[in-house]
Amino acid sequence: MADKRDYYEVLGVGKSASGDEIKKAYRQLARKYHPDVNKEADAETKFKEVKEAYDVLSDDGQRARYDQYGHVDPNQGMGGAGGFSGNGDFGGFGDIFDMFFGGGGGRRDPNAPQRGNDLQYSMTIEFKEAVFGKETEITIPRTESCDTCAGSGAKPGTKPETCSVCHGSGQQEVVQNTPFGRMVNRRACSHCGGSGKVIKEKCGTCHGAGRVKKQRKINVRIPAGVDDGAQIRLSGEGEGGLRGGPAGDLYIVIRVKAHEFFERENDDIYCEVPLTFVQAALGDEIEIPTLTEKVKLKIPAGTQTGTYFRLKGKGVPKLRGYGQGDQHVKVTIVTPTKLSDEQKDLLRQFGGIGGESPAETQEHHESIFEKMKKAFRGE
After folding, report:
1. Where, by residue number, does the polypeptide cross the bilayer (predicted)?
2. Was 166 annotated as part of a binding site?
3. Residue 353 — very low, low, confident or very high, per pLDDT cuts 50/70/90?
């Protein structure tokens, strides 16, 4: 874990930062490094780092554990990070025990069932598919037990034989006389490769490996409300096991494309809509696109640019629990670009009365209109 950066450093906040400060920092960095926006080579790596830091620091329980233990997970005990390696060799000292004490930790059965490896699959989905969920079919290349030889590796009608060198143990002992005395070093048998078995007549399908590569089609259900970076675990859909061992698991990593009009933060949706000077000054009722429909929003007279309005329950369905988030609408006052002579005279009169002068036009307002049009069309 030494190569992991401090989560507070990743988000650029102090250890006393509030939940809102952490959320704000995450939102800014997530936008900056999102792979759909940032095309730099390390953008995706930085985005994952930011997401991981936010997932921990935004949860009070995980944050408290992190503040106390850092990147070491105390729940993993002696087999987890920072403790013993959990592989039976006591964190890399097994070879030393083998050299001086002839194996001390006990022998492993080379013919015992072995669990298959886990697999990871990256799936990119549309913004609204993440919001509402979807079912799809994917094709996974994976290693499975050979049907011809039932995983034995031997030609049908024959079977593997016990290795004559290691007598089925899968290990050889090499004795060395040193100034410290007689030492025994145990290593994998060179004759059978540590399997304890020798295949004289190999299966014609898998050529003695006992496993073959296959393309497997799997139906995947993406739950409504899933967010970018989420993982879906499909038990038993990973690599096939050895010698009757269980298959590994398949982890599907979700990547969500950015939307032109909507932005998402947890279960809430954010968007920006333009208002004319007249609408903002006198008030109006406008139509707003949401994820599912168009709704009316009342704009009170005297609304200032940058004001947010909340549409309750118009956000993302909660992945764990009931209900939905909200939609937050930010209004931006648009300066007109084409005015008639009469309109200009009226504005000059207005400016003379109020002591104001006309503002310069901002180009990005035009793009807001275009994005809003697409949102109304359901794009």
Report:
1. none
2. yes
3. low
